[in-house]
Please model this.
Amino acid sequence: MSQLAIPRRVGAAFVLTTALLAAPVRAEEQEPIDSEAGIEVAAGLATLVYAPAKALYALTGGLAAGMAYIASAGNQDVTEPILTPSLRGDYIVRPEHLRGEKTLEFFGRAPVEPEEAPAVASGDGLDGATANAAGPRDPSEPAPPDESTAAE
Model:
């Protein structure tokens, strides 16, 4: 190697290092392309272990509920606490579970029933509920004074 080649290499390395350090870093702004694919692969691999365990638990719970049904002479109230946690819940692991966006439920819960809306009174007195707490007004009686005219 000539003595002139060494300074050129050092100079080229210096220029390259300066250019790389001066370039704006955008790694934090962009999500890696393989990130989503990696999470999906991990969810698939986790499902290979989780799904057979959940299926075995569901099968065992179904058999136990069947025996409880027979032993209780057909009482479904006995089987519901056995069937609900064993048959409901998640059977596969999703990427949302691994990200912590959703909980993975091995033991299922009973579905939440929506609350019934309160009955709305029509005010005509025919539906059993009236808008007036005193009850329906007798048409032969004079109408009560209007609040807007009473203030005058």
